[in-house]
Amino acid sequence: MVSMSGHQGWAPIRWAVVLVVLSAVACGADGEPTPDPPPPPSAEPPVPDAFVGDWYGHNRRLTIPPDGAVSYAWRDYGAREPTFIELELELRPEGDALGGEVVGTSGADVPEGTGVRVEPYEPHVLAVRLTGGETALVCGKEAPPGRCGA
Predict the structure, then answer these.
(1) CA 96, CA 126: separation in Å to the nearest integer?
(2) pLDDT tens sequence across 99-116
(3) Which of 1, 38, 46, 61 has a Cα-to-Cα distance from 75 of 20 to 30 A?
(4) Phi, psi angle pair for 24, to nearest 5°
(5) Per-position DSSP letters for the chain, written without gaps between them
(6) pLDDT-based confidence at 19, cuts 50/70/90?
(7) Phi and psi for 23 in degrees, rounded to 5?
(8) Residue 37: is its pLDDT beyond 90?
(9) What is the pLDDT of residue 147?
(10) Do the beta carbons of residue 101 and residue 113 sit within 8 Å?
(11) Between the CA of residue 71 and those of 116, 129, 146, what are the distances in Å?
């Protein structure tokens, strides 16, 4: 003979309480099902394929991976010894161009936070402009020979 004393007699009541609580969580105060929460905002859009790759000019190099963590370097002609200024850029799509800022630098003349814009100049050629600086052209491998310097 099974005894109904103790906690065993409460088991059906506990399950009923659990079901009521779960029902209240799944439905709003009006008894209607609660809608699913909205999906998290999507990640920053990737860099468009037209910009991705290695771009070269006379003593300059721009490397753009799909994630927008860009490197840009050029020869510093003002230095006594041959040196390159190297920048790390964070770029994101802005219309038909890329915009962003310098997030790492090896040159005191270009501080972190300097604005950057990279935009199509002509087929297979990009224009790179740092805020307060000149525009430099860099070419993809399909650009006409000599278009972006020696």
Answers:
(1) 12
(2) 999 999 998 889 999 999
(3) 46
(4) -65, -35
(5) -----TTGGGHHHHHHHHHHHHHHHHB-TTSSBPPPPPPPPPPPPPPPTTT-EEEEETTEEEEE-TTSEEEEEEEETTSSS-EEEEEEEEEEEETTEEEEEEEEES-TTS-TT-EEEEEEEETTEEEEEETTS-EEEEE-TTSPTTTT--
(6) very low
(7) -65, -40
(8) no
(9) 92
(10) yes
(11) 12, 14, 22
Token pair listed for 95: 């219309």
Structure tokens of 80?
């006594």
Residue 18 pLDDT greater than 70, yes or no: no
* Cα 21–chain centre separation: 42
pLDDT at 27 over 60: no
The one-letter code for the residue type at 114 is: T
pLDDT of residue 16: 43
